[in-house]
Each structure stands twice: as C-alpha cells, then as structure tokens.
Design brief:
By secondary structure, this protein is an alpha/beta fold. The protein is built from 29 helices and 26 strands. The chain binds adenosine-5'-diphosphate (ADP) and magnesium ion.
C-alpha cells in the first residue's frame, strides 16, 4: 500500500466510483486504461497491452488510445455493450504535484450525443422497464432529440412488443430484475431504489421544476412515473447533470396504436428485411425523405400504425395535397433536401455540447423556413382558386395550413447568429474566429490592441530585408521557439549586432531580437485572451439560442412532418399508389392490390395484381396452390396494404376500402426460411396460441402454411382445428387469410359458412406449367402434383396408379367439421381414420423428384408388400 503513487491513488479513487465502466484516464496526449479495464480494452479494441511499474516488483497492465481518436474507440466499446467513463485533466498544470482529474462524461449506448456515434436516420432510445406482477411501466428517451415518453400497461407481451417497436440501444432495469436480459442490445442495471416511486417522482419534479406530474399525465400512474424517473436519473448521471434538453415528458397509452407483435414486425419486414437489411423492407420503398428529421419520423410512423380514422385522414389529406401538386412537391423537397438536423442541433445547444459550426447550421436550417412557408402558401392559393371536387371530409388545404402555421422562422435566432457567428465558423475552439468582429466590445478591444503588434510582425520581413540587404531573410513561427528570423549560412556575415542566435539548422541560422520577443508576448497573450473571450461569448450566444428551443423544436417537427408527407406523396406518385378509405365495419376491399416490395424487385415480369374482398359473410379465406405460385406474396401484400393505410400512406392498389384493423397478426409456418434451424414446430405453435388468445373480430390474420412443421397428419389436424376455432369463437371471426398446402382444408368451406376457398391460377403451355400469380375462387385442383408428374414424362402406368391411390386417399379426407353448435356441445371427434402404412408412404412421396425408374420400383415394392399382408 505504501508504494502507491499519488496518481495511481487518484486513478483507483476514480475507478471506485465507476466500477461498472471502463475508465479512460487522460495522461497527456493519451487516454489510458489500467488493470482489468486494460485487458478488456486491449482485447476489444486490438490495442497493445503494455504495463507500467507500480511499486516494488509490480507492474500494472495498461492500454491506451490517442486522445484525438478516442471517439471512434469509445463508439466501438459501447457498441459492444460496455460503459465508458471519460476522465479528463481539469487543468494545464499540476496542483501540489498532481494533475487534477475528473470524470466529465459517461458514455453508454443509450446516452450518446456525438453525431459520429449515431445513425442520423433513426432515434437512439434509452428505455427503462419496471415489472410489478402483471403490470408494467415503460419509459423511453432520446437525449439527442429531447423525446421523452412513458406509459404503463398490463402484460409482459405488450412490453416485448413496445420494445420491439422502439428497438432501444439500451434498456434500464432494476438490479433484482433478471427476466428482461435479452430484451435489448444492451441491458444496464440500476439499484432497486432508483425505481422506487418516491425517488422517481422527486427526480422528475425537481428536473421539470413542477409541484405535480399532472401536466405530464402520469401523476396517478405509479409504474409510468417509476420508469420515467429511472430514465431521467440515468441521463443526469451520464451527462453530469446537463440534461436541459429534456423539456417535456409525454404519457401515452399503448391502446392508441396498433399493437404489432415481434413476429409480425419481422414477418412483414417493416423496417428491415428478414435478412436484417434495410433493402427489401417496407421502409426502403416508402422512405423518400430528404432530411434526417423526416427519415426518423417516417420510421416512427411505420413502426406505429394508428387506430384513429380522423388522425389518419389528416395525414392522408396532407399526402394527397403533395400528390396532386407535383411541382410544389418538387420545390419543397428541393428546399428540404439536406437541411441540417435542426432537432439534434437544438438539443446539442441545449446540452452545452454545440460547436460553432452547429450554431451556424441552425441558421442554415432556419433560413429555409420562410422559403418553405412561401412555397406552401403559394400552392394553397393556387389550389383554392381551382375548382376542386368537394373534399370528402376535411379539406386537405386546411390540414396543411395548420401544419404551416407552426413553422416558425425564429428570426430573432437567425439575427443573433448572423451577428455573432461568421459564416465559415470552425468546428472547434482551438482557432480564433469563432465570433464575428463587432459583436462583442470586449473581444474587439483585445483584437484591436493586439492588431498593432500583429501588423508589426507582419511588416518585419520586408523591413529587415531592407535593413540587412539579405534578400532571402525570412520571418517564421513555430510552437517551440515562437517567432524567429531565419538567415542562410551564406549570409550570416551580414547579420546585424542586435540579432540573438537561437537555433542552427543544416543550411540556416535562426535569430530573435528583444523587440520581436516583446511583440510576440503581446500577440500570444492577446490570442489566449481572445480564445478565452470567444469561448465565453459563444456560450452566451448558445444560451440565448437555447431560450428559443421550444420554437426551434416545433419548427423541426413541422419540417420532419412535411418531409414525411411529401416523401409519401413522392412514393405514391412514383410507384402508383392510391389513397385508401377507412370504414369501421370490419370489412376489407382491395382492388388490384400489389406487394409494395416484391413489385419493385421484379425485373422482366409484371407484377400480377389481386383483389381481396372480405365481408361479414366471408371471414376466412383458404388459399391453396402449388409452391412458388404466389400465396405468401398475396397474404403479405394484404397485410402491408392495411398497415400502410394505417400509417397514413397511399397504398399499392387501384382501390382500397379498409375496415380499421386493431391488430395485424402474421404467422409463417416452419420450413420457410424464417425459421430455418430453430425448434420450429414449437415456435410455430407458441405463436399461433398467442394469436388465438389475443385476436379480435377487428383483427387481420395472416396464416401462412401453419402446421407445416410437424408430420402431415398432425399438421393437417392442427390447421383444421385452428380454422374451426377462429370461425366459431364468438370473440374471433377475424379477417383471416390462410395459405396452406393441405388440400384437405378445402373441405372446410362446405362445412363452415364464413370460410371460402381460393387458389392460384395455373396455366399449361405445352409441357410447361405457368404460374399466373392470379388468385381465383375455388380450391386448387388436388391432382395437380400428379398432373405435373405426367407432364414431366412419368410412365402412364405410374400416373394411372397414382391417380387411383389418390382417389382412395380422398375417400378418407375429413368430411365433418365442428360447427358452432357442436362446439358448444363440446364434442370431440376423430378427424382421420387410421391410414395404412402404404398410404402414409404414398402421401409422403415426392413424385416430382423421382425418376421414372424409381417410381416403377416403388410400385413393384408396394405391390409385393401389399401381397405379403
Ligand atoms: P408461394 O407462397 O405460393 O410458394 P410466393 O408468394 O413465395 O409463392 O411467390 C413466389 C415468387 O413468385 C415470388 O418471389 C415472386 O417472385 C413471384 N410472385 C408472387 N406473386 C406474384 C405476383 N402477384 N406477380 C408476379 N410475381 C409474383
Ligand atoms: Mg409461401
């Protein structure tokens, strides 16, 4: 113990305060890590692990990164789930032999604000969850945009769904919570008491300076309050208290939005494809936004469909306005294109992290506002002077107008920035020129007083050349010696007596004069003062700008919305979408619907559009057809069209009338790529059970090859029973599209009145089979596979025999179903008679993959075995 150096002790003290973080300890031009942190950092960042002596015969492991490259290394650490505490030197010189050091910032995945560590097009959420029995509190915040929201609800399932929607970078839970470990990329633990209601309330009340949480809507919501308190605490903790940008807290209800479970989000490939890429997702075909703010907002909309027709029509009116006015749309988008991220910039200013370039960019963004207002105003005048057909509900113009009226050019802010910050402001404070001359009298004073000295130095070279007659004499500056006069060796004999030699180079000597040193001191002192004053004045400017934050953020929000609706209009125009209409009656009518993503990916082929018509009389469609004929595409496009409509987008169809869906469920049977390699059937059944328990009459169900993950008879039996249940349960009868390769299910339509059969049309051309991708009423032809076998040239005998066997099998297909009356009687029944082993084998036979010879052999074998029994 006695051999610990003071700086080692300082390190140990600081480390003790941040036991769960990797401490980056500033030593000169490096950030160093020690001990276990060094081992971790060396491993994760491929750094060289060194060591430094520590007391007698002891060495401390150490690994460091250059201070100017720290951001990249920190980003890599937090991406791997680590926390990083940044410990800075707080002075230029040691005090009592020790450099004062402090942790100035804790970096975690959910609290970063550095643009280089963020994706401009998406939120970076920090979430906190608290589970109490069946009740859950969930809060989330994005410190870069000031977003802060909280809610509470029943059920862990909803928690999983909300977390899937938010995809938080970091999730906070209490120390005693161990069941949420895999619910976010990074899960961080806080002591239980951080989630206690009293503490949480206190921290919120103090931060917002209010006496009650009524204004935020969570006064009576204990769990919502507790989660929000934990989020705010953690932000304060990591930002060393500087969280002025968190100015609002919104309490929301999960019931206000369409809930989408994790599997459905993934299956529908909303924001990323099943392969985890943006390409192939719905977002990738819808996102025509041209600003980061718009791109983030669209992602929110896509992730969170609405359940309110009025609200949806407001969005659709706005999209329609830009859809009808192509010129306006082009103009607006040209103005918006590449506008600086006013939302994140404002938040950086609020948090005291802005640099001069950031402030300048606020001005750049605001300068576009009057242009936007003008463009929109002109267009709505034009529009109202036209004889438009009477709008069906609200007028598109009035809905846009309410948006425009919130566009605030904040001229006070642009004036201020114009006066204070030069146009080509630097991005850091090491150089002078952060503040415009004429803005600060104090600054100008120091500038003027040093101006003479700078002029004197500037004129020194010509003056001395004249005085000495040395034409090659030069005046220069470097960090070590300051200003100097340089004379080549050849000319040193002409050097005057007042020159003092300072340094000898290979071919020149460097000199100073006492007068030069005096002026140098003046200049350097002034420079130091100027930098200091510029910093201070800049901070004041930021504070003044910060006072306008609510208006700036509101304007940023309007810009984002305009970008989103104009972008949706652009997608609609380019891709041929129409405005959907909504009803409250649980029906669905789509004329010539298309799959928004698949239609984009087709090259030579044309996408074949399909209708969907579901009424109270027809709730369940069974869709049969060969592989690759287009069943899954038809199912998914129907779900996507409903979902697109409920985010306020136009849809890929000629007409769409949509009974608002409270939820969309999609389940894809095992064997489809999604489930490859997982314990498939169990997953499939768990997911299906969820649907049966949570769907309602207003839901839309997409069931694709459910039951496929098990043996034929199990699968068929389960699929059959599921359809019966959906059909008969009084709470259910949801709109259901069920694609299946079990032709037996076709029989359900005869037994259950709300079930109808559809199949995918197929055409023969010579010996080829063409998939027309066209969905038509009726069940698929059962003998289809045998038909293909025939076309493929299987011997006639085989085909005939197969047809015979098929006919026999058909005799055993289920011909009864549980009808509502029978269900209530609770009757059980055997769906399938015990099939003979030979028949089972035949059912499993993949005729397509057999050679004629194999088929013949098989027939001989069966015949022999049949004779033996
Ligand atoms: P299934 O589910 O019946 O096996 P898919 O829906 O997966 O068939 O479709 C297979 C392929 O057929 C798709 O990848 C797509 O290329 C094409 N396809 C599907 N539907 C259509 C359509 N309506 N128009 C054009 N091509 C389609
Ligand atoms: Mg399929």
């Amino acid at each position: 113990m006695s051999h610990i150096t003071p700086s080692r002790q300082q390190y140990l003290d600081i480390k003790a305060q941040y036991p769960d973080a990797i401490v980056l300890f500033r030593l000169g031009d490096f950030y160093e890590t020690f001990d276990d942190d060094a081992q971790t950092a060396a491993r994760e960042l491929d750094l060289v692990l060194t060591s430094r002596p520590q007391g007698k015969n002891q060495r401390t492991p150490m690994a460091g990164v250059p201070y100017h490259a720290a951001e990249g290394y920190i980003a890599r650490l937090i991406a791997k789930g680590y926390k990083v505490a940044l410990c800075e030197q707080m002075s230029e010189t040691p005090i009592n032999g020790l450099m004062p050091r402090e942790v100035v910032r804790v970096f975690t995945a959910g609290t970063v604000i550095e643009p280089g560590m963020l994706d401009a097009g998406r939120h970076n959420y920090l979430a906190a969850a608290i589970v109490d029995g069946d009740r859950v509190g969930l809060a989330y915040a994005d410190i870069t945009t000031g977003t802060f929201a909280t809610t509470q609800f029943h059920g862990r399932r909803t928690l999983t769904e909300e977390l899937a929607r938010l995809n938080p970078a970091e999730l906070l839970v209490s120390d005693s919570e161990h069941t949420l470990q895999d619910q976010a990329r990074t899960v961080s633990h806080l002591p239980d008491w951080r989630f206690e209601e009293g503490n949480a309330r206190q921290i919120l009340l103090r931060h917002f300076g209010v006496a009650s949480l009524d204004a935020f809507g969570c006064e009576q919501k204990s769990l919502a309050t507790r989660a929000a308190g934990a989020v705010l605490y953690y932000l304060q903790e990591t930002q060393m208290g500087r969280v002025g940008q968190m100015q609002r807290l919104a309490t929301y209800s999960v019931e206000g939005y369409m809930a989408l479970d994790v599997a459905t989000r993934a299956n529908l490939e909303l924001t990323e494809s099943l392969g985890g890429e943006r390409k192939g997702s719905l977002l990738s075909v819808l996102d025509k936004t041209v600003t980061a703010m718009g791109s983030r907002l669209l992602r929110e909309w896509v992730s969170r469909p609405l359940l309110d027709i009025t609200q949806l029509n407001i969005r659709l009116d706005q999209v329609q306005h830009f859809h009808e006015n192509a010129l306006l749309r082009a103009d607006l988008r040209a103005t918006l294109k590449g506008l600086p991220d006013l939302e994140r910039l404002t938040n950086r200013i609020l948090s005291g992290k802005a640099n001069p370039r950031d402030v300048e960019n606020v001005k750049v963004a605001l300068t576009a506002v009057p242009i936007i207002s003008e463009q929109l105003a002109v267009s709505s005048e034009q529009l109202s002077s036209h004889q438009l057909p009477a709008p069906t509900h609200q007028s598109p113009i009035s809905n846009l107008q309410s948006l425009i009226s919130n566009l605030d050019p904040c001229t006070e802010v642009t004036d201020l920035i114009n006066r204070a910050i030069p146009d080509d402001a630097p991005t850091n404070f090491n150089k002078m020129g952060v503040i415009r001359s004429g803005f600060s009298a104090e600054l100008d004073g120091v500038m003027n007083s040093s101006a003479h000295a700078r002029e004197w130095v500037a004129g020194l070279e010509p003056r001395e050349r004249q005085r000495t007659g040395i034409a090659s004499l030069k005046v220069g500056f470097n960090k070590v010696f300051g200003y100097y006069i340089e004379v080549t060796h050849a000319n040193t004999s002409s050097v005057p007596g007042d020159y003092i030699r300072k340094q000898t180079l290979t071919n020149a000597e460097r000199y100073i004069t006492p007068e030069l040193k005096e002026y140098e001191t003046l200049i350097l002192n002034a420079e130091e003062r100027i930098l200091e004053i510029e910093r201070r004045v800049f901070t004041e400017v930021c504070q003044q700008v910060a006072a306008y934050a609510p208006r700036l953020l509101q304007t940023a929000q309007v810009i984002a919305e305009l970008d989103v609706v104009a972008g949706l209009a652009e997608a609609a125009a380019n891709q041929g979408y129409v405005r959907p209409s909504f009803t409250n009656d649980n029906t669905l009518h789509i004329v010539n619907g298309r799959h928004p993503v698949v239609e984009q990916s087709l090259r030579l082929e044309r996408f074949v559009p399909n209708d969907v018509h579901m009424t109270e009389k027809e709730r369940i469609q069974i869709i049969t057809g060969p592989n690759m004929s287009g069943k899954s595409t038809y199912l998914r496009q129907t779900a996507l069209i409903v979902l697109m409509a409920q985010i306020g987008s136009f849809v890929p169809a000629d007409e769409a009338h949509i009974g608002l869906a409270d939820r969309i469920f999609t389940r894809i049977g095992a064997h489809d790529e999604l489930h490859a390699g997982r314990s498939t059937f169990m997953v499939e059944m768990v997911e299906t059970a969820e649907i049966l328990n949570h769907a309602s009459h207003r839901s839309l169900l997409i069931l694709d090859e459910i039951g496929r993950g098990t043996s034929t008879y199990d699968g068929l039996a389960i699929a059959w029973a599921i359809v019966e249940y959906l059909h008969n349960h009084p709470r259910l009868k949801p709109r259901t599209l069920f694609a299946t390769h079990y032709h037996e299910l076709v029989g359900l339509a005869d037994l259950l009145p709300l079930v109808a059969n559809y199949n995918v049309a197929v055409a023969e051309e010579g010996d080829k089979v063409l998939f027309l991708h066209h969905i038509v009423p009726g069940g698929a032809d059962r003998s289809y596979g045998i038909h293909v076998a025939q076309l493929a040239g299987l011997p006639k005998d085989v085909v005939n025999r197969a047809n015979e066997l098929l006919h026999e099998l058909e005799q055993h297909a289920p011909t009864t179903a549980v009808t509502p009356s029978r269900l209530s009687a609770g009757q059980q029944m055997a769906l399938f008679p015990e099939a003979s082993p030979l028949l089972k084998e035949l059912a499993k036979l993949d005729v397509n993959s057999m050679s004629p010879l194999e088929a013949i052999n098989k027939l001989y074998e069966w015949k022999r075995r049949y004779a033996e029994t």
